[in-house]
Write a structure and sequence with these properties.
0% helix, globular
Amino acid sequence: MFSSILQVETGKSEAEIPAMDSASIVICIQGSASVSNQSLTQDVQMHRGTILFIAANENVSLKIEPANGLLVYRSHAGC
C-alpha cells in the first residue's frame, strides 16, 4: 500500500485529485468540499470523516470551502 496527503491552504477554492493506474480511497481529515468527476451524476459533499472510493484512471475535481482549507489522505495499491 502507498499513500499520499493532499493539503489545500485556506483561501483556495479548487483542487484536483489526479488519476492513477490503481483504485484508491480518500479520507477527509479536515475541511469540506464538493466532489465531482465524469462518473458522478451529481456532486458529492465531502467533510471531515468522509471516505470516498476513486476508481482507477479517474480524476476528481474538488470545490473547496475556502474558509476551512482541506486535508485528505489517499491510500492506493500502486505508485
